[in-house]
Structures are given as structure tokens and as C-alpha cells.
Amino acid sequence: MADTVPILEVKDLGVSYGSKVAVAGVGFEIYPGEIFGLLGPNGAGKTSTLSAIEGLVLPTSGSIRIAGIDVERDPIAARAKIGVQLQATSFQADLHVDEIIALYAGLYRVPVSADAMRTMLEDIGLTNHADKKIGELSGGQRQRVALATATIHNPPLLLLDEPTTGLDPQSRRHLWDRIEAMRDKGHSILLTTHSMEEAGAVADRVAIMDYSKIIVAGKPRELVEKYKDNPDVKAVARHGEVTLEDVFIGLTGRELRD
To answer: Which domains does the chain have, with CATH numbers?
Structure first.
């Protein structure tokens, strides 16, 4: 990957809210066709990092480049290169599935023919739900619609903020398949999640944040191998074999976070 131009470059990122430092000196890169998991306890700085990448907050230091575009210098062009799926969807409950998709297609100036609409609905497993109201769908179905709208303009970078929270195992696995399919088509994906199982299952690399900084980064299996003999990690391993969750808790601590 060293010879490949990254889709996302975050360098020495700092984000503050008044005197509170939310992100301090964070840096990482995501390459084409890669899923990158950003992990951390509540309050670690993940959401602020994503907000800066999306252009929703101004960094106090550092730089962010998306597909070579500086987010601060040309935020509109940078935003056109990303798709965003949040943990909770906020679609108008009375709109139908096909209306939502057509609305977002119009916002991104993407022409959608009747045939293209049928293909998209088939792709997300909602062929027979086109005329259903969003409010009538299950959580998993709404997340599938959200992923479709986030990717309708074929962005090179997709930001997923805890996309499978609250989903049943079948819906979660289906979404994993969709995410991996996007990766296989060359899209880059930044995924935040509290599920270490999810991070280990779909992420090519992960970074663990704590107290506004990235403390470790690497491939999930390599991190497990590197820290399996760490005393703090071994102390929280419940069943002998160390997992990514054990590494996460061992390095970030057992205390509850608000």
C-alpha cells in the first residue's frame, strides 16, 4: 500500500470545544479497497474525528484530505467524495422507500430510471417494499435503505458510524456482506463500532482511540498476537484465548465511560 495514493489522509488532527480537547494529534490513512475500523470507548474522540472528516467541525490543527482534496480549503468538493451512514436514520417516516431513494438521487444529481430503481431495490433486498413507508420497515431494512442512499453517488469513501447497532444477527451479517462487497469494488470504508466481533470480522485494519489519541493501530489479528502476553490484556481474557475485545479492554481499561 505504500505505493498507493490513500483515499483518506488524516494528519496531526486536533479538535477542541473551548478548553476541552476532543482529538489530539490523530493521524491515519485509508487506501482504496480497504475497511478501516476506528474503535474506542465512549468519549475517546471517534465522533469528533468523523465530524471533522465530514466537514461538520473545524479542526484546531492538522489536515484532512479526501481523494487528494483538502477538506478545509474545498469542503464542497471533498464532501462530494464521501457517503455517510449514521447509527440512527432520520428519514421522514411517511415517505415510501422508492421516494427516499429518488430524493437522494436528485440531491446528488444522479439519474435513476425505473430499471435502475428496480435494480437498487433488488440489491438491498427490498424489491417488494418499494411502496412501503420508511416508518413501517424494520431496523435492518431502514439501515439497508440508508446504505443505498449513502452510496447512490458512488463515493470513493464511505463513513459508517456504528451501522449495525440494534440489529439482529441476520440483519447484521447482511450488512457486513454489503460492506465487504463495496470494499471489493474498490471503495474505502471508515467504520466506527463498539463491536469487537464486527471489527475483527470485516476490518482490514483498526485503530484504537482513547482519551483523544490513537494508542495502537494495525491488523486485528496482528494486534491480538502483539498484545496477547500483555499482563493487562491477559487479566481480562475470559476463556484463555485472547481476542480483539480483550486487547481493547486491556489497553483502554475496565472502567465504565459515560
So the answer is: 1-81+159-225 (3.40.50.300), 85-154 (no CATH)
For residue 96, the 8-state DSSP code is B
Which pTM does this prediction carry? Answer: 0.90
Edge-to-edge strand ranges of the sheet holding 61-66: 20-30, 8-17, 61-66, 69-70
| 3-state SS, residue 187 | coil
Q: What is the pLDDT of residue 252?
A: 95
The two beta strands, 8-17 and 20-30, are antiparallel
Task: Return all residues near 20 (Cβ < 8 A) that are at least 6 apart.
Answer: none
Distance CA 246, CA 22 (A): 25
- Measured CA to CA, the distance from residue 213 to residue 177 in angstroms comes to 30
Instruction: Give the cell for residue 144.
Output: 439497508
The strands making up 157-161's β-sheet, listed across from edge to edge, are: 82-85, 157-161, 188-192, 35-39, 205-210, 213-218
- Maximum separation of any 2 CA atoms in the chain, in Å: 59
For the chain, 258 residues long, the average pLDDT of each consecutive 10-residue run is 81 96 97 96 93 93 96 93 80 89 90 89 86 88 87 93 84 88 93 92 96 97 96 88 94 85
Q: What is the dihedral of CA 3, 4, 6, 12, to 10 degrees?
A: -10
CB of 189 closer than 8 Å to CB of 35: yes
Interacting residues of 87 by C-beta distance below 8 A, sequence separation 6+:
161, 162, 163, 165
